[in-house]
Design brief:
Layout lengths: L3 E5 L11 H5 L12 E9 L3 H13 L5 E4 L15 E2 L13 H28 L6 E2 L3 E5 L2 H16 L5 E3 L1 H8 L6 E5 L3 E3 L1 H9 L6 E4 L6 E5 L2 E6 L2 E10 L15 E11 L13 E5 L6 E7 L2 E12 L7 H18 L8 E12 L5 E6 L2 E5 L8 H14 L4 H8 L9 H19 L3
Parallel strand pairs: 2-3, 2-13, 3-10, 6-15, 13-20
Antiparallel strand pairs: 1-11, 4-9, 5-9, 6-8, 7-8, 11-12, 12-13, 14-17, 14-18, 15-16, 16-17, 19-20
Helix pairs in contact: 2-8, 3-8
Bound molecules: flavin-adenine dinucleotide.
The site of flavin-adenine dinucleotide (FAD) has 41 residues, from helix 2, strand 14 and strand 18.
């Protein structure tokens, strides 16, 4: 007898205030909500980096496959549209001190995963003529505010060289020529990263879909009935019957009961200044810099029709209910103002026009929640903070797994351990909050 099991969504995503990225773009009409019962080969739940990449890859591999992509919100409102927009090709958690043979192999795999994701977007950018306001293969900087940060960048540069990865160390004067501010003690340029306008990027992909791939926005998956012969996803006004489900809901995998006790729900925050005339700040008109310390502050300068702006991203906080309130955004905003003033003292009068937060899902051992999680259900979840590349690659690898396409990327994903269990809730709650606070303190001025 065939058995089935139903997984109900205990909660739905609440992405909160509009991001500055969305506010700067012209308004877009979302695709219609699903209002009937449909039958497809694959339903993808979640239209962030992972879900969109999965749908694109499925269409590449088999153009006859019918696919429905559904998202509870509109494309771009989730984390994939509200991040800092770095597609980073190199792992940043390597240091020369602990760099053994296994670490080298792991780093090469990490680089392959990240570059597969970047190539995925580069191909789409070329095929569809996206300009550099959407996808800019400009490389990125890492910047140091302190001597310790400078030492870290020097060690990181050597490690990258030992991996055969080109990079350029910049002294204070050289990095000031890029950023227009003298606050940074040093910088490191790596050419393989891409900076994107994240909302524009995910919208551009969403607008590519055509039969037999369909996108339904504002269509939450309320439950998934799973059996070996197929699945049914209930939505508020309809349902999707599908042979297979790709769950690309990031931390909301846990809302369906997948990855329970394995996912850490962490939010990070961004603020974007009001526009200023480009001549008011020297340096390049467009650049992106990540911090020398992993828990530090990311900075970008963007230029648009109404002037230039600076983006500040900083602060990580833990929210097991996958929701943050206005007080958390306000507190992070106060920190952003201090970080901005520290970096651009001559421009401290500039006001922040937009502030927002977004959710990420981390695992204890930094692996994705990947592969078959129930009959017919395949997860591409847990972005581990750098979903621009990791979630994209997870989506691609899941699509390949479903159609039986073999690749080195798939091999790497299949070799990942399963996410490790976190300690029981009260310990995880206390531990995660203390750990994030400690690491923010340790990042100091970075
Ligand atoms: C401020 C900020 C800055 C960041 N900067 C960077 C960066 O520079 N580089 C980088 O690599 N990463 C960055 N990140 C992390 C990155 O944004 C995420 O890792 C990435 O977006 C995760 O992509 P995803 O597709 O896995 O998940 P998401 O983008 O979260 O997509 C999941 C989707 O699932 C949908 N969903 C959930 N539940 C349901 C349901 N029941 N029914 C239907 N739909 C559902 C959600 O609405 C959402 O659209 C940043 C994050 C933030 C918040």
């Amino acid at each position: 007898m065939m058995t089935s099991k139903t997984f109900r969504a205990r909660r739905l995503p609440a992405h909160g205030v509009e991001s500055g990225w969305a506010a700067l773009l012209p308004s877009r009409t979302p695709t219609p909500e699903l209002d009937q019962a449909i039958t497809v080969d694959v339903v993808v739940i979640g239209a962030g980096f992972a879900g969109l990449a999965a749908a694109v890859r499925l269409a590449d591999l088999d153009r006859n496959l019918s696919v429905a992509v559904i998202d509870a919100d509109v494309v771009g409102n989730g984390a994939s549209g509200r991040n800092s927009g770095f597609l980073i090709d190199l792992p940043h958690d390597i240091s020369s001190g602990n760099f053994g043979v296994n670490a080298v192999a792991k780093s090469h795999n990490d680089i392959l995963v990240a570059r597969t994701a970047i190539q995925h977007y580069a191909r789409l950018a070329e095929e569809h003529g996206w300009d550099e306001d959407v996808f800019d293969p400009s490389g990125k900087y890492s910047v140091a505010m302190t001597d310790a940060g400078t030492e870290h960048l020097a060690a990181y540069s050597l490690t990258l060289k030992s991996l055969g990865e080109p990079n350029q160390v910049l002294g204070a004067t050289d990095i000031a020529e890029v950023t227009g501010t003298r606050c940074f003690k040093s910088g490191l340029f790596t050419p393989g990263a891409v900076i994107v306008q994240p909302t524009a990027l995910v919208r551009a992909i969403a607008d590519l879909f055509q039969e037999p791939v369909r996108l339904f926005e504002r269509t939450a998956a309320l439950s998934i009935k799973a059996s070996s012969s197929g699945c049914t996803v209930k939505t508020p006004k309809g349902e999707v019957r599908a042979g297979r489900v790709i769950l690309a809901t990031n931390g909301h995998a846990e809302s369906f009961g997948f990855g329970s006790g394995e996912l850490l729900h962490v939010f990070t925050y961004a603020s974007l200044t009001e526009p200023f005339t480009s001549s008011a700040l020297g340096g390049y008109r467009k650049w992106g810099a990540t911090p020398a310390a992993p828990m530090g502050t990311t900075v970008r300068r963007i230029n648009g029709a109404d002037g230039d702006r600076i983006l500040i991203r900083s602060r990580y906080t833990y929210h097991p209910k996958i929701e943050v309130g206005a007080a958390s955004i306000k507190s992070a905003g106060d920190l952003h103002d201090r970080k901005f003033a520290d970096r651009f003292p001559d421009h401290r009068h500039l006001k922040m026009q937009y502030r927002w937060a977004g959710a990420m899902a981390l695992t204890r051992n930094s692996v994705p929640l990947f592969g078959q999680v129930a009959d017919g259900i395949f997860a591409a979840c847990a972005c581990n903070g750098i979903g621009g590349t990791k979630s994209t690659a997870a989506g691609i690898a899941t699509a390949e797994l479903l159609v039986g396409h073999r690749s080195k990327l798939g091999e790497i994903f299949r070799s990942f351990e399963k996410p490790q269990a976190l300690p029981p809730r009260p310990f995880t709650d206390v531990g995660a909050r203390l750990n994030l606070k400690f690491r923010e303190w340790r990042a100091g001025r970075e």
